[in-house]
Amino acid sequence: MIDFNNYQERAITTKIYASEIGVPYVVLGIIGEVGEFIEKFSETEDDTSNDLLTKELGDIYWYLAAFFSEVGQKMGDHIDAKEPLKYYDPVGELSEAVFNIAELTKKYLRDEYPVRMGSERFDKIKHQINQIHLVLLEMCASMDVELETILEANIAKLQSRKERGVLGGDGDTR
Ligand SMILES: [Mg+2]
Description:
By secondary structure, the protein is mainly alpha-helical. It has one domain (4-160). Helix content is 67%, strand content 0%. The chain has helices spanning 4-11, 22-43, 50-70, 90-111, 119-143, 147-164. Helix 2 runs antiparallel to helix 4. The chain is globular. The structure holds magnesium ion (MG). Magnesium ion binds next to helix 2 and helix 3.
């Protein structure tokens, strides 16, 4: 079983954004990375795309971990895989989840920010995050890749960029 609290602690050491923009930044990050995943998922249907897809999966989890940090929560206390999916349509499920997260975050910024997110809104976003998590677990199973392997590879990639001073910038292969 994955120790998500330990993953979150290590992931956040590669954070480079300013704290005052934390919540909107990480939510935009979740949306952007889910978009990258959908784009790559939709472009190819053969096994050669698995490497690209698993890299995007790792990026999504980084932003999910950072989101929990920005709202003062431990990832491992909230991530689960017990909520059933209504149907299995990865692109539809992921899109719906990020649209809901965007809307909930907009209302948070309007009504509560910069006070810490209240539990009611947090629970709604958490539900959407778990929907994303469930879809991604299904994707890992279908590609026969362990999520833990993906998370470790993502941490290693970011640590390497940090050591080389290239965490900022663009490009999947920097
Ligand atoms: Mg990416």
